[in-house]
Amino acid sequence: MRPLIYLAASVCVISVGAAAILCAPARAQNAQPSGNAAHGKQLFAVDGCYECHGYQGEGGGFAGPKLAPDPLPYSFVLRQLRTPLRAMPVYTSEVLTDSDVADIYAYLRSIPQAKSVASIPMLRCDPGSCNGK
Predict the structure, then answer these.
(1) List of domains in the chain
(2) Which of 30, 76, 88, 94 is the most buried (most CB within 10 A)?
(3) What digits encode the pLDDT tens for the residues 95-119?
(4) How many CB atoms lie within 10 A of CB 52?
(5) Distance, C-alpha 75 to centroid of its chain
C-alpha cells in the first residue's frame, strides 16, 4: 500500500511542476513591460503609426484596426510589428527597438476610454427637449 501512495504523491508533484514550467512562458509573454508613454506617443507619430491607426489608436477605416483603448496583449503587438499578419510594414528591431515598442505600448495603454454619449449634455436628447419638440 505504501509504494502506491508514494507513486501517487510523486505523480502529483511531477504534474504540478510540469504545469508550472509549461505555464511560465505564457505568463511571461503576457507580462506588460513598463514604458514611457510620452516617448511612445512621439514614436507613434514619428514612425507613422497614426497614418493607419489614427493619432489616438482609434483605427483608420479600412487601413488600420483600432489599437486603443484596451490594446491587445503586448506579446501580440510585438509579434505583429516584427512579423505582420496582413498589409503592414515590418518594424525590425533596427527600426523600433524592444524598448521603443514598450514605450508605444505604454502610450496605447494610457489612452482613456471615450466618454459615453449620455455623459455629454449637448448630445443628450431628453424627451420633449429635442429639436423644439
Answers:
(1) 37-113 (1.10.760.10)
(2) 88
(3) 999 999 999 999 999 999 988 888 8
(4) 17
(5) 8
